[in-house]
Amino acid sequence: MKLVFFDIECAGVHKTYAKICVFGYVVCDEKFHILKKEDILINPRGRFELTDRKGEKGIVLPYEYEEFKKQPPFPAVYPKIKQLLEDKDCFVMGHAVLNDVKYLNLETRRFRLPSFEFEFSDSQLMFMTHINDFSRQFGLEHIAKELGVEFTPHRAADDAYATMRIVEALCKAYSCSPRELPEVLKISNGRIKNYCISRPVSRGFKKFNAEKHAARLERSKKRVEFYNNLSRKRVNKKGGPLAGKTFTFSRAIEDSIDKSIPYVDKIYALGGRYSQRMENCNIYVGDDGDNTARTQSAAARALPRITCEQLEDLLHD
User: Fold this and answer.
1) What confidence tens digit (pLDDT) does each residue in 242-263 have?
2) What mean pLDDT is predicted for residues 107-131?
3) Beta carbons of 153 and 140 less than 8 angstroms apart
């Protein structure tokens, strides 16, 4: 069995197209002896759009852009790529590979070519499962640096090479073959067929998502309870020590309804108000260390900020 690691660079990506300009790959045996390493340059048949929507954060591909105009378009290299990825004697892998498979899917649709059909696994998901951390995406450069792998970022064949070295390190860690690695990590392979794509999934990732979903539902339930309580509040017409004061809380405090609801009850009892709208408030309550978007918005509006401890002092004066 051979292993195929691949990576794709695009001149631009949109929901309806992915202008592939480089298909890089490494073929090796099960002992990770490299049999072939190649960048296939492709004329993207369109201009390069390498920035985000604001025209910022653009990547720079390590190629002479004029060289792409001399290359054949995707339909001309499609048979070679298809043969490589669909070889029954090959196990296909990539890093954050779902994106690259989607790019292939978009290009086959763009040029009205038959769908690819192959299974694939993801080194990023393997690494996340290995360290049992699904809270963020781990980039190829980050992992390669940890493993001491040197490569040129965004040179597709080198990205494929770095992916190979990551998988090799994981195989050594578990004393298993590349074919056995997904099973050891409890990862099911992804697949593309008839333009339909299923993603690789690990048992650990499923558990993480289930717990994340349950936590989101619990937060939603608490917010409903908090705002239902708030909707019943009326300002004390007689005024009070907090008359003219309108508060808003950080999300973390709002979600702690065992504290936030009694806080709001006391604020109204003392003649104050609570508002969901930041522009209507003149005091923001957020504990030290909270640097969420809501807290940053309060800082941008120059709202006076107090902690829960300071709020409690106000409520007990």
Assistant:
1) 999 999 999 999 999 999 999 9
2) 95
3) yes
CATH number of 231-315: 3.40.50.10190
- For strand 190-193 and strand 196-198, is the pairing parallel, antiparallel, or unpaired? antiparallel
Query: What angle, rounded to 10 degrees, do the helices at 203-231 and 257-269 form?
Result: 20
Superfamily of domain 2-199: Ribonuclease H-like superfamily/Ribonuclease H (3.30.420.10)
Predicted model pTM: 0.73
Are 226 and 254 spatial neighbours (Cβ–Cβ below 8 Å)? Answer: yes
Share of the chain above pLDDT 70, in %: 96
- The two three-digit tokens of residue 59, written as one number: 């990547």
Q: Tens of pLDDT along 189-247?
A: 999 999 999 999 998 888 888 888 888 889 889 989 998 988 888 776 677 899 999 99
Cβ-contact 116, 94 below 8 angstroms: no
Q: What stretch(es) of the chain map to CATH 3.30.420.10?
A: 2-199
